[in-house]
Design brief:
The complex is a heterodimer of chains A (291) and B (291). With 291 residues, chain A is mostly beta strands. Helices cover 8% and strands 41% of the residues of chain A. Chain B is elongated, with a radius of gyration of 22 Å. Classes of the chains: A mainly beta (291), B alpha/beta (291). Chains A and B meet through helix 3 and strand 10 of A and strand 10, strand 11 and strand 13 of B.
Chain lengths: 291, 291
Amino acid sequence: MRNNVVFVFAFLSVVGLATPAPAIELEKLYSERPLVNPSQSAETLVEAAFNNLFGFDTEVRVETVTTRAGAEPERAAFCLHRKRFQDTTRTLVTSLAPERVKGMRVLEIAADRGARRSLVWVPSIGGEAITTRYRLTDPFLGTFSDREASTVRADLVGLRTYEILSRSHTDVEGKQAHLITLRPLASAGYERVELVIASDAPVILEYRYYERGDTAPARVARAPRSEMYDVKGRWLPGKMFYRDRVLETETEVRLTHTLIDSTTTPDALFMDSSFYREPIAGLGSEGNPGQ
Amino acid sequence: MNARGYLWLGFAALLAGGCATGGTSGDSTRSTEISVEVLRGVVDPGKGALPQPRVHVVVDVTSLLGENERAANAKADAQMTLVQTAAPAMPWLVPGRVTLHAFDTVGKADKPNACGSKQTSWATQALTALYADFESRGEAPDARVLLVSDLETECAQDLCRAGKKLTDRGAWLDVVMLGDAAVPDCLAGLRPAEVASPMLQALAPTAPAFRVEVLDPAKPGPGRTLANGVAGGPAVRVPSGLVRVVVDVSPVETIGPLQLPPGGAAKIRVMDFPLSAPDERAWIVELRNAQ
């Protein structure tokens, strides 16, 4: 399965902020907002946390540095655009580094009813975009995989993309938090994930990914409170930390979020026939594929 | 469970029978069995704003230890006994979180007493002494007493009389049997008197009902009910698919969404803390696929 994961784009967050506000305590931000009710169901808590991360149109610049013992650090960068349309969510990933993938664009169109398809455009090949079976395995994991398409009935996927198998609590950074186990209904790059959601805000502080049969997580992603920023009423991670037990790597991820709309980012950037032609402001030559 | 120190007290759902109603019959290869179990406990004293029950564990060591051991250090022996014998039956019971009563051997009988004799047996003495202690110290009526015993040398009538004095005073009396003997009817039937506080009523071993709802794509709220059941009762059978399970604890706990596998089974275990904040509660789903 690991061989199928071709990119580990840890974009994990999808929101917007031009100038991050200083990090403050979550409860200060949310003290007047009854967003987290202790009696809320696990499903509601998860939905609120996902909405905090993904519930709006965004551009995210992501830089990653991956280290492993005895090897040079690997640096990567990409830009992610995500926009909600009438019955689809469209996500465009534009690679910025390393050099071998610079300028490559992948557009994924995820329909509300479960269908999902991807198109890729490679600068060195040029021409038109082609359909690829690589797809984003999970919106908050941020990996691409060529795993077989889900065997889950499409009508079920359209209702929910996951099931919830447990709810308990834990302490993270000295504060109480919800611990909720999700299992994706469609095949993904993992068998299940434990989400640690703050009890004082709809914020995911930790992701623990398990592969089948694992008793310890194969991969853990942390989003510390100290690295969270207020983005127009949402808490978004400015920095995240991954530890992959299987690959024996550690990755630091820096994220810069910018809110987008049709005035800042044309819809053509998300269309099948034009996503690879549209220039992206602020990206230099790699953001202008036609030049 | 985390390190917050929960103390489990009840086998609530285990005590409760009940029957499922409204279960959907049909082809077992295309449907799924769902059962629910609810355990109840109280949070470790000092962790919440709600009143904390006082818990008194009375351990009957008479038939488990030799004469010398009894004479040497009854309390230490009783603690060991609690750990070694009672703990497997009550894995949530944390020695040291409770007031442990182990009485000396004065007046102990090694053989069954004639009912009404002046020489009462150990457990009867213990409950009588506990009652006197409550009275002398002005112990609040909502104490909880766990009697751990094989009741081997007891006169049931005397024991029940002693137990009833406690429950008439407002205490809750549970009996954890060592060995195969059954709890005498007169003890099993004891329940808190009317003076018992709402706190103890909250711990009353009534079995919560639950219902299984289908996830309805047409509306976001509660879905159509597929089946009704009772925690601790028989499993209900529903069509496989995406559902939620709503358990009638206070406040209501909504579990899921769950993708029920055809021909499989789902067992839901809810660990409830009726006297604490709702988010102290925990639950887990055990799914068994038929394939």
